[in-house]
Amino acid sequence: TNFFTNLASAAGGAAGSSYFGTRNSLSFLIETHGISWGMSCVERRVMSQYAIASALIEYTVEHSVEMMAMVHASRDFMKKSNPIYLEEKLFVLEHGSTVTGTWYGPLVHVPSGEVVEENHAIQHKEHTEAVATRPRATAYVIPMGLATEAEILRVATIHGAEPYKLPAGATVNLKRYIKTEKGFDITQEQPVTLEEGAWVFPNTVDSAVLNVIMEPDFNPGNPERKMCLYRMGLIQADEKGDLPLYRYCHTLEDGKVSAQ
């Protein structure tokens, strides 16, 4: 897990163990307690990790055809669906947890073997609740001329984006991201003339990774994770709070925005 997390981080915009989920891949995170009393039972932790990892590998080998077909089908669906704008097609900015079950059993202090609590409640939670959502943009537009332009392009393309240029003076109907005291907001759509031209990042990828990179308020509960251009420091708000970042909210035509 650490290898893949570091690999994603080096590319820019790491989402930890969830990164491969954003790429429409199957993603598994295995954690064994490694602090406090966990340091006194290394053998148990190693064997637990080995047992779970072995089971996952064996299952993957046995069901490889089925799993690859599922991933390919999901990516193909996203590739066809992403360029089509629908208000009801939402991107989840923040998940909440839902308790799906509660179990009771003894709580044991492992080093001593002492039962601390006879009937301890353990809750199973799933992150299936959508706390904050936003309609999926079909493209993102960043004006040319930023000092960080080369790094923005590197980060976006290494994650699968295929940006193209709009000429100087092009006008597009766009919504702009703005920084507020409470977080971020989006302006009403209006014609925007891009004096120096712009880079367009069409959402023609086969996953949700472009949304993750571009949306400045994705996963607000973990601001230390540099998953988007804003947190990477590649785009900044000016004194009025305006970001050099726009969203396009119309169906793409041959993979491109409508510009004049």
Number of helical runs?
6
What is the rounded distance between the termini? Answer: 47 Å
Approximate helicity band: 25-40%
* Overall form: elongated
SSE inventory with pairings:
Layout: H1 2-11, H2 19-22, H3 42-62, H4 64-81, E1 90-109, E2 114-135, E3 139-143, H5 149-158, E4 164-166, E5 170-180, E6 183-186, E7 190-194, E8 198-202, H6 209-214, E9 242-248
Antiparallel strand pairs: 1-2, 3-8, 3-9, 4-8, 5-6, 5-7, 5-9
Description of the molecule:
The chain is an alpha+beta fold and 260 residues long. 27% of the residues lie in helices and 32% in strands. It contains 6 helices and 9 strands. Strands 3, 4, 5, 6, 7, 8 and 9 form a 7-stranded antiparallel β-sheet that branches. It starts with a helix and ends in a 12-residue tail after the last strand. 21% of the residues are buried.
Summarize the structure.
The protein has 260 residues and is of the alpha+beta class. It has helices at 2-11, 19-22, 42-62, 64-81, 149-158, 209-214, and strands at residues 90-109, 114-135, 139-143, 164-166, 170-180, 183-186, 190-194, 198-202, 242-248. Strands 3, 4, 5, 6, 7, 8 and 9 form a 7-stranded antiparallel sheet that branches. Strands 1-2 form a two-stranded antiparallel sheet.
